[in-house]
Amino acid sequence: MELVDDGKESSNSVNEIEATNSPLISGLPDDISLMCLARVPRKYHSVLKYWKLIDGLPPQISKRKGIGFEALGNKLFLLGGCNGFQDSTNEVYSYDASSNRWVEATSLSTARCYFACEVLDEKLYAIGGIVSNASDLHSWDTFDPLTNCWISNRDPNIVSDIEDSVVVDGKIYIRCCRYPVTPHIYAAVYEPSSCKWQHADTDMVLGWRGPAVVVDGTLFVLDQSLGTRLMMWHKERREWTSVGKLSPLLTRPPCRLVAVGKSIFIVGKGLSTVIVDVGDLGNEDKVILGSSIPRLLSDFDVVSCKCLSI
């Protein structure tokens, strides 16, 4: 019996040693395996396949509402906003993804709250919104990272109640809030070559009834009036078509959109996320299939989504 027990103990010890010495990648020395793993692109890291919080958000802006949110270069920008009944602020903070650090950036020319924020030609735009001075109602600010300065401009086509914005074909489009007393939808387009705003295409504006995103120059809108349906704008045919419906089991409106490559991320309450590949749409008006990311335990609404590459 003792000899049998010794054999079992010896066998277990050998198995433990073999398990400890098993290579990271079968057939390769560990030093070479580590070099291979270190070169795997970040997008394939399994640790990135879930939502996580960014630490170090400046406490003075954690309670603000109506903040502008945009990505420029390898930085995220949080702009303006207001806190309760206090006036709008012109403060700007930036997050450097490479150093994982928040810093205070150059202030806006005009204090703003609930405004549109876009990037065009490597410049940051802060458009409309609630402002402190009546003279700034029809204004927008432009930030040039090369000079680190904001420049203020004015145009009568800019209004304060902006609900959404998007960049299409090298132009900025803004869609204004829709009220029961004024059922029509107002939208304006900015032409950078002339530095002027004008009324947007009526046919396009009529179908812009939700959050929008652009993939390869094509405008997509998520219509959330009756369920969640992804719509696509055909500029040659000047009409909207339905790409497909999203399962109510996966989407939790109100949702926001963000594009990463040829995929559209539809992010709803609690960061419940559905990912749709629009690179090969096939037939129109079908039920859309895609992958999903589980939501967080919290049930907060998503204000805005932006894509940042480092």
Automatic annotation (TrEMBL):
SUPFAM superfamilies in UniProt: Kelch motif
Keywords attached to this entry: Kelch repeat, Repeat
Domain FKB95-like N-terminal Kelch: 68-254
Pfam family, one: Kelch_FKB95
Protein name: F-box/kelch-repeat protein SKIP4
